[in-house]
Known about the structure:
The structure holds 3 protein chains of 3 kinds. By secondary structure, chain A is of the alpha+beta class. The model of chain A has no long low-confidence stretch (mean pLDDT about 95). Chain B has helices spanning about 15-25, 35-40, 75-80, 85-90, 90-100, 105-110, 110-115, 125-130, 225-235, 240-250, 265-285, and strands at about 5-10, 25-30, 50, 60-65, 70, 135-140, 145, 150-155, 155-160, 165-170, 180-185, 195-205, 210-215, 225. The N and C termini of chain B lie far apart (about 55 Å). The chains are: A alpha+beta, B alpha+beta, C alpha+beta.
Amino acid sequence: MTKTGFPDARVLGQDVPRLEDAKLIRGQGRFVDDIAPPGLLHAAFLRSPHAHAAITAIDTSQALALPGVHAVHTLDDLAPHLADTRLVVAMPSPSYRLDLHRPVLARHEVVHVGEPIACVIADSRYIAEDAAALIEVEYDILPVVTDCEAALQDGAPTAHRNAASNLVAEMTIAYGAVEDAFATAAHRVHEKLWIHRGGSHSMECRGLVAIPDPVEDRLTVWSSTQMPHAARRLLCDIIGLHERQLRVVTPDLGGGFGPKLIFYPEDVVITLAARLLARPVKWIEDRREHFISTTQERDQAWDVEMATDAEGRIQAVRGVLIHDHGAWTARGVNVPQGAVSAMPLAYVVPAFRMQIRAAATNKVPVTPVRGAGQPQGVFAMERLLDAAARAIGIDRAEIRRRNLVPADRMPYETPIRTRGGLPVTLDSGDYPACQAMTLQGADWAGFEARRATARAAGRYRGIGLANYVEATGRGPFEHVSIRIEPSGRIFVATGAAAMGQGTATMLAQIVAEQLGADMSNVVVTTGDTEAAPTGLGGSNSRQAVMAGSSAHAAATRLRDRVLDIAGELMEVAPADLEIVGRAVQLKGVPQMRRTLAEIARAVAGQAGFVLPGQSGPGLAAAEELVIDAMTYANGTAVAEVEIDIETGEIAVAHLVFGHDCGRAMHPRLVEGQLMGGIAHGLGNALFEFMAYDDTAQPLTTTLAEYLLMTATEMPRVTILHMESPSPLNALGIKGVGEAGVIPIGAAVASAIDDALSDFAIKIDRLPISPVDLLARLDQAVGG
Amino acid sequence: MKPPDFTYHAPETLEQALSLLASLDNARLLAGGQSLMPMLTMRFAFPDHVIDLNRVAGLAGITQTGDTLRIGAMTRQRDLLDHPFVQQKIPLLAQALALIGHRQTRNRGTIGGSLCHLDPAAELVSVMTALGATIEIAGPNGPRDVAMADFPLGYMTPSLAPDELVTAVHLPVPPPGHGASFLEFSRRHGDFAIVSAAVMLTRHSSGHLADAVITLGGVGPVPLRLAKAEALLAGQTPTPDLFTQAACLAREIDAMEDAQIPAWYRRRLAESLTRRALTAAHQSLPGAA
Amino acid sequence: MTEPQTRHITLRVNGQAREITTPVRKTLADALRTDLGLTGTHLGCETGLCGACTILVDGRAMRACLMLAVQAEGHAITTIEGLAPSPSELHPLQQAFCRHHALQCGFCTPGLLTTLVEFLHDVPNPSEAEIREAISGNLCRCTGYDTIVAATLEAAAMLRPQP
């Protein structure tokens, strides 16, 4: 369709081989657990078995006495070495009603199952676990808060015994004359929704190896974090180090998906333990710990209404979102805020008011997982649109077409603000065209024939759709520096952190495009505080947009410098030169050339001699391009499902995903991001459920109980592309890391409604399990 | 998640294994390890001794004598699945084996290990009950046999004394020309079944059903024979209505309930899977349309 | 060494005879990673549910987390490090994985490759459905599996003897 790509580019827009693969494909990656310096000790944590209890005593003597144990740390042991015994990491927001900064280790009260209480350091993980089991903790069990809605009712027990209530934060996102619109609207629809998302479940859990260097009084911390620079800053603050004394490096990351951007208690304990013992210490989170200590997204209860005119044009949306915040503020209120902000984005919504109430519960803290609330907001909006289409009696695609922000209104400034207070302005895109493309790809118009065929065979087939607009590329900047060494090799360093999505390849493409187009000549270092002075790391589908834009600016500037110097050395005008491979050559006369190595050496400088060129010594450029406004990607998902009404089984027959993320620098990487997101979205829609019982004990703590998508459960997926270049950055790109997950639950729910329209079933919760669906079917037929 | 400490024994003969079992307190037998190893790493099991059966001579292997198949307890699930006789003559077993876990777990997991672990949802437990297998047990007082139907004493509790171990499974080969179907409902391929239905049908030359065996797995602590439905089917002309009627009887069974799956849902699956397995087994009869 | 119960074992790993002294409770996966330095075998769950630690034991794909190291005595193990024929060449499956973008973070990749090496040996001409079933015990959170299936189909064609 409107695929523009990079028509004149040499490597951009091409499916070049990934730089990451050479090592990973041979099992020679360097993941955090692969790092084993001499003298390494191993840590295990004792974690709370109770969701809420007072700790009256901790006795570590038996654990300490076990042979092979080097230390057992409780908060009392570590406190003298800490500037603060709490992790104060909450992002600024005026909405907080409770300060819930979590402790480095729990001392007087535990507030969720899995909260760390003590850390054993031993010769092996085996022994450390033996010793952890010998620590005796006396608990007084306290009442628990398991449900976010019940948490906010009068008389509810509190998740923290000394808290006045469970209301962690409240805010209202509003504009326009909402009440007037509802009073005069032709149609009003109302939905009560319960939306669950689970954990991230990167195949690699968290972990870190802290290696002290007594010679230089420094520490190197290898951490599976998406934000090494933030981790360094926080570790320095809490342990009392200068940044010079601490290097944080993200090695190969076995997936991130959000929770690895959080700063955790274990980060502090392991780093400090290594410093106190003057030995390298490793802690690798196991999968059970991942279920009970790594942050998740979990529950949201939405009570929402939409008002439309007689033709289905949205007049207003209003409602309340109650959000399960978990036991601590490990990041902020960005998940519910992101959810509500995502709700109206794709559509023209003249008036809007959503109240957010975040409730403390005795569960693992909630922070963003791939999508960061946006799937929930989209689910709420799309459910309302389906309800409105039913009320008015028009096609579900048609009501959306009438309300999507039209292309001729781009850029479209909405009255919504980002969490930083900036206006949300949709920068580009043709949402109606994207929906039309996707409907055509899914043969929406021809569906009734497929429904009839399926019904004749006893199967209930349905089709559904959902639109999304995703805020991507959160600023304000990302650091990228490029240096051409006297060897002629190009070294790129960035504060961006790679999580497995091909960040190094993407940056190398951008740099190589300007500097010779030889991918093999570019070496990229990501996620190392030593290599990049600053960085904001991986989140918000930001790496391509932010680091990519800085890389492009730096590479362009460096290219000009190379040509300038080469021009002087070769005595020709720089405009007549080009960089091809590892050399600069005269256009059309390739034998007239200087290698990058020669040029780099020429400006390396020699005492007493004048430098060539106009711009000083060395061949380097660094950039921290500031882009505050986010760029908005969009898309449409159409799901086709078949329901077995005897078992409640839901089979997705075909999923068509049409999207627009601006220019695709590496189409295959883009598709890879989308497919992973779609699989994650299907998991959230149909399989993944982090279950707790009435005492807030987690019930799904293995990968047999918490169901991730497998190859056999993946449906046929078709991805369709549109390209509306973003005007906000030179490359015209938008983020794509989270897009896939966002509309899937909504599209699948819409398809299930459609399949079961005979029974008038409306899906109002995620995930949708066969048991739930069969119960609903029974209700519908009065069984 | 690392195993607790234990003493490891690797006997090479059955006699050595039995004598270790008789003399050691708090010992666990390690067969394929697909269940015991996770229980160790999760520290749900704390044996003082682990007796590894993988080096015991003669415990693995499949032999056919007349109309009986003897399957050594340490035979890997994959080897039984690949066995040509199983593929050709015991389709019910072949279908069930293909649904056990995944390629990697079938390569290591054993027949005896799965039966002794006795997970109510395990395919092998259900299919061996359906096939009328006999469990061969060795102990200090010599060998004894117990019918598979009598082997489970209750939830995950086999009829085994602490000093006994299972050495083999004897399978009567079903009559030629029978129809068979093993169906299960699980959330994902390879997961334990929520409910499974194993059906075998034989037919008179007249076209009437001679015999029907219906075994449900996953509904209760031990496999359940749907005897009423079997009785209803015997001697009848097979029709879709008859199968529906027979399957209806699954609504009356006692079914387990757990945090994720209510009893009523298991009963519904039992009914649906029974009807579908009856239909498929009937279609697999020679000459069926 | 503070582990009370240890044993000395010999085994073959990627074609080479190796000897280690290991605590009897140590898993084979941990022994491969820490005692033999073969860190390409990854641990994603340690309970046999994710497939990342899949290795070949006497040619058969198995979960290395569900075996004790002592059980490997006398057996031949192949890990991801043993798949490529040389430092400059890749196994056809590895080549196809790179070509099809069948890996992203690469954490599950070693277990997928070992699983598929055995599978393609057993089933040289598989259907897409057979491939999906073969890898249903290998979890990948990044790719959505389609590219893995495509890569396997291509590798199968490369590995089949040409008529």
